[in-house]
Amino acid sequence: MLILAGLGNPGPKHEKNRHNIGFMAVDAIARRWSFAPFRSKFSGLASEGSVQTPDGSVRALLLKPQTFYNETGRSISEALKFYKLEPDALVVFYDEIDLAPGRFRMKAGGGAAGNNGIRSITQHVGPYFRRARMGTGHPGHKDRVMGHVLSDFHKVETDWVKALVEACADALPMLLAGEDEKYQAEVMRLAPAEKLDPRRSPPGDD
Q1: pLDDT tens digit string along 87-144?
Q2: How many Cβ atoms sit within 10 Å of the Cβ of residue 17?
């Protein structure tokens, strides 16, 4: 059993925000692998399902915390405790401003790098969980970060956002089999993105 959590803020006001790309990835996984409908659970929206991997079928819980981004750890902690799972059974999909738009990197453990959602999870369950970092680019100055992450993706970004979240879903068997490096490579093969300076201004942010 694994928990695949996406970070984001609840409500229609936020659904197209850069901060919500983690929710978008989890929704894509639910569609691709025909998970059960999302239901209110663990201070969030949860859905269970199974995915066939080379090593057999693996059960997973998809979780979209509804606690708001900065309190994400509370919801995730509830789910881990309910299933009696250790933090290494958790994969968190979230927006990473220090990666260029469309880039994707897996990482296990480490610090929060200024991400308050990751900081909250670390405070509740410790740092030893797996991170699926989805690049959204950096606005160029720390004073602009909040406005950047809480703004919607621009229309010209629609194609790469869709490609990235669907690649995260299509390559899922590798992730569930514990093959994080292969998963990262497959996501980038399915949704290639140029390795640019993440501080290049995204469209419309000039």
Answers
A1: 999 999 999 999 999 999 999 999 998 899 999 999 999 999 999 999 999 988 888 9
A2: 21
Record the tokens describing residue 107, joined without a space: 């990482």
Catalytic-residue membership of 19: yes
Residue 205 lies in a domain: no
Per-residue CA distances from 134 to 47, 75, 100 (Å): 22, 21, 9
Count the neighbouring beta carbons within 10 Å of the beta carbon of residue 138.
24
- Structural domain contains residue 120: yes
197 within domain boundaries? no
H helices of the chain, where?
Answer: 21-32, 72-83, 116-125, 145-149, 158-170, 172-176, 180-190
Report if residue 119 sits inside a domain: yes
- Quick check: 204 pLDDT over 70? no
| Partner residues linked to 65 by β-bridges | 44
- Could you say which of 19, 124, 138, 148 is catalytic? 19
Count how many residues are written for the chain.
206
Return the closest-CA partner of residue 5 out of 82, 114, 92, 118: 92
Q: What is the mean pLDDT of residues 154-168?
A: 97
Residue 156 DSSP label: G
